[in-house]
Amino acid sequence: MPDVPTNIPTPDPSLKNSNQPQKIYLKDYTPPVFSVNHIDLNIELFDGADKKHATVTANLDMTRNTAGDLVLFGRELQLESITLNGKTLSESDYQLDQESLTIVNAPDNCQITTVVTIVPQTNTSLEGLYQAGEGADKMFCTQCEPEGFRKITFYPDRPDVLATFTTRIEADKTYPTLLANGNLIDQGELAGDRHFAVWQDPTKKPSYLFACVMADLDVLTDQYVTSEGREVLLELYAKHENIEQCHVGMQALKDSMKWDEDNYGRAYDLDRYMIVAVSQFNMGAMENKGLNIFNTACVLSSPETTTDRRNFNVKAVIAHEYFHNWTGNRITCRDWFQLCLKEGFTVFRDQSFSESLHSPAVQRIDDVATLRAAQFPEDASPLAHPPRPDHFVEINNFYTATVYEKGAEIVRMIANTLGKDKFRQGTDEYFRRYDGQAVTVEDLLSALSVADPSIETFIDWYTQPGTPTLSGYFTVENNRLALSLSQQTRQVAGYPAPKALPIPVKMAIFNRATGELAKEDLVLLKDDSQSFEFDGLFAKADFDPVVSLLRDFSAPVQLNFNYSNDDLAFLMQYETNGFNRWQAAQLLVNRILLQNADTDAYITALKASLPALSETDPMLAARLLDMPSERELGSAIQTDYDPSQVRARHQAVKKAVAVELKDIWQSAYAKLPISAYEDTAEAMGVRAWRNVVLDMALLAGVSDAKHWAITQYQQASCMTERLGALNAAVAHGLPQKAEWLADFYQRFHHDALVMDLWFGVQANDSQASVADIFALTSHQDFDINTPNRVRAVLGGLLAQPTKIWTQQGVEQYLSMMQDLDKRNPLLASRLIQGLSNWNALVADKKSMVKQALILSQANMSSKNVKETLQSMLNNL
Ligand code: TRP
Ligand code: ZN
To answer: What are the residue boundaries of the Peptidase M1 alanyl aminopeptidase Ig-like fold domain, all occurrences included (predicted)?
Structure first.
């Protein structure tokens, strides 16, 4: 029998049934009563047949800052002993509850030593120290952000307490890899086939950046010499069979290190940088100081197993976590309300890095597509919140598209308003002023404003929820063009009346008669409405203006300009800004899908653009055919949303486009023979375009297309091609569908990340019933404890609104959530957020879903899920 601890405080029953989890407010922030100068941590892992737990001894050197109690947070810890300045404390010397340990009247200088027992082997929450994987795959690792450290030891676990760490880890030699933050200062063998390692992190850091790993892993090593001459050892750890999939990540790491030196003047500050790949992980990756931990999906990459999109994402996530070393780690958050201080800024930085790797226009298109697909719906839902929230129950619920993606858009607006040099001046000032500190969004704005005080007005973007709508029109009088712009933001329940925000509008004016670009400008809309005048345009007699607004998506707003369909078709062909060509197509196709506008102008413009564009920029050509998904269309509808109507329209429009452009597909595919795999922007563009052509050709009934699919599946040089053919077979019900699914399984069943694709393809199959999709969760390779696998299946269901929004869909989904709520509350809560736009549904569906949500509420116990359900039901 494993010795499972018994004296974990049992929950107070009155708390468990409470439907009012406690809210924490930004306005209540107070500085920490004690600081920690240093922590000595000793983690002894036991994983034998009869002994499965870890003993954690922490020695805290603490100094008083202000009057008050000494509070250490701790959750699910079995306290074995505690001493204060050498004296063992008895139960009457402190107060212990489920969340904390409090010592009243503590002296000004405290040496506190605690010994606790934890059980990583049964920790399915993937927070704190946990076991990831089973059998030969088993390893132990940590996830501390935001509040996981308190599941390892008693500690003032808040981001504004910064300390140096010394970490000793001890385990059986079956776990040869023992890692923690910083530099390795000692290691050795112990009796009983055990060993240890001691790591010292010289940089003061908050506890959320702590990490350690005990595992049996291979390592890929490399070196980087920084601009300051520091020789940095780079190590990428993964399971033995995956180590060859680490080269892309390693190159991306070196590229990121160089990019941050070149673009922000930031060099790496330690002698070692480690990345560890873990198969069970709640999010993408984590920026722990000097020891990043990555979801395997965000670090492993090989042409045979990884699609171009995921390969590209690997580079972006590597960059993101590396960039956190300055924006997040060296300068961290004062409190968790400031999360977007590090996340928004860091996402902006990784997006800029990605722009440098391939086409900036396509990168911008993909980032805006993500914003529109994830953040706009969130901002329109009952879960709407500002990028910097002012209250929360469970901070894990605020790692959202609004904090990350809208947060990045705000920094981008500031960067564009300032221009390159002044923005660099501002970021230099930020790093100079706040290095080593825990700061706020106001601090960031104040540093970025050194060269231009008007930047401070962007604070309202951080504090106000809701997506602004930018409306406008123009008039021509006396040879002057007057552009009228106005803004409006919906009032979100619980927030003050919306204010006008500073909206930078990047724009251009074209001459319809010649297709020529006549003017480019950046105007700033500061008030509810304003007019901007342009003259000198009408010198040419044939001048007929077409205005193009919001180039490069210069602000995160809904654009409601009174373009005619012909204006949009013109811009699809003649805009010189690649992003705005795409945006024009999107505006037009949205009118067709949502307002039943006719397809003529759109199809004519596609016919005129695609043949040439597919030669010069096949990636952009592929993106030009993007259609908002059924799910995204659904979230653009505020009331009486009927999923089957949306689906019917979506299918009809796509089919009409495919048929009208049949000749294009017919001639395009022949020019796209499969060639050897290359990891370049050009080759990725060709593969993206080829897959779009294949899909459209099958839809249009091009007679050769079935053969193209077969050849592509059989001769695929990489996963993008093989999956493209498989997706086509599934989407179009080709006779090879079952055979290829079986073949795919045979080829790749040993590779978890490819199996996620296999599950995903089937969960996204429009022919599958709700029951078919849930049947995937009974497959022998399904594992509810692996978030990637759960998401692969449930993501497919969420992508099919006609299925999720049925009684069976919602009820089965919520019953899985009840199970997950006990195992992994973070994942459960995020998946329930996927149902947040329920309140826009048509009446009968709406009341059905509401009933199901209310019923499920009673069966949920985590703070995470309770807060989410409560917001979904109440914040309407
Ligand atoms: N800070 C991480 C990032 O953005 C993400 C993160 C936050 C996370 N909380 C987490 C990762 C919990 C895993 C689990 O890069
Ligand atoms: Zn991040």
So the answer is: 466-561
Query: Using a 6 Å cutoff on CB, does residue 282 contact ligand 1?
Result: yes
β-bridge partners, 547: 509
pLDDT in tens, 185-209: 999 999 999 999 999 999 999 999 9
The verdict on the CB of residue 423 being under 6 Å from ligand 1 is no
Query: Is 409 one of the catalytic residues?
Result: no
Phi, psi of 469 (to 5 degrees): -100, 130
Distance CA 115, CA 110 (A): 16
Distance CA 457, CA 443 (A): 13
pTM equals 0.97
- Please state the atom number of ligand 1 nearest to the C-alpha of residue 284: 11
Residues 6 or more apart whose Cβ sits within 8 Å of residue 559? 469, 470, 549, 550, 583, 587
Give me the mean pLDDT over the 541-546 stretch: 90
Q: How far is CA 440 from the centre of its chain?
A: 22
Q: 399 in ligand 1 pocket by Cβ < 6 Å? A: yes
pLDDT of residue 19: 52
What is the C-alpha to C-alpha distance for residues 395 and 377, in angstroms, rounded to an integer? 20
| pLDDT tops 50 at residue 876 | yes
Which residue in 373, 370, 374, 318 sits closest to 349, CA to CA? Answer: 318
Q: Are 99 and 157 in contact (CB under 8 A)?
A: no
Say if ligand 1 is within 6 A of residue 321 CB.
yes
Distance from C-alpha of 570 to C-alpha of 609, rounded to nearest angstrom: 10
For ion ligand 2, residues whose CB falls within 5 Å? 343, 346
Strands (E), 239-369: 272-278, 285-286, 291-295, 332-333
Q: Looking at residue 13, what is its pLDDT?
A: 42
- C-alpha distances out from residue 37 to 34, 40, 203, 577, Å: 10, 10, 11, 53
**Looking at ligand 1, which residue's alpha carbon is closest to its atom 10?**
145
109-118/52-64 β-pairing: antiparallel
HEC per residue, 493-527: CCCCCCCCCCEEEEEEEEECCCCEEEEEEEEEECC
Q: For 151-184, what is each residue's pLDDT tens digit? A: 999 999 999 999 999 999 999 999 999 999 999 9
283 lines ligand 1 (CB under 6 A): yes
Task: Summarize the confidence of residues 503-516 as an average pLDDT.
Answer: 97
Express each pLDDT in 112-123 by its tens digit. Answer: 999 999 999 999
Tokens of 554: 């210069």
Q: Kindly state if the Cβ of 346 falls inside 6 Å of ligand 1.
A: no
Closest ligand 1 atom number to CA of residue 287: 15
For residue 721, give the H/E element and its range.
Answer: helix 719-731
**pLDDT for res 20:** 64
CA distances from 654 to 248, 582, 625, 664 (A): 36, 17, 9, 15
Question: How much is the mean pLDDT over the chain?
Answer: 96
Question: Of 142, 280, 283, which is best to mutate to test ligand 1, by the most ligand atoms within 8 angstroms of its C-beta?
Answer: 283
| CA 299/CA 420 separation, integer angstroms | 31
Q: Does residue 139 surpass a pLDDT of 70?
A: yes
Instruction: Give the helix/strand (H/E) hosting 139.
Output: strand 139-143
- Measured in Å, residue 339 CA sits from the centre of ligand 2 at 9
Cα–Cα distance between 666 and 126 in angstroms, integer? 49
pLDDT band of 5, cuts 50, 70, 90: very low
If you measure from the C-alpha of residue 209 to the centroid of ligand 1, how many angstroms do you get, rounded to a whole number?
10
Compute the CA torsion angle 136, 719, 219, 252 (nearest 10 deg): -150
Characterize the bridge pairing of strands 24-25 and 391-392: antiparallel
Give the H/E segment covering residue 676: none
Angle ∠(504,510,512) on CA atoms, nearest 5: 145
Is residue 850 packed enough to be buried (19+ CB in 10 Å), middle (13-18) or exposed (0-12)?
middle
Please give the full DSSP string across 593-617, using - where no structure is assigned.
HHH---SHHHHHHHHHHHHHHHHH-
Alpha-carbon span 686 to 680, nearest angstrom: 10
Tokens matching residue 126: 């993937």
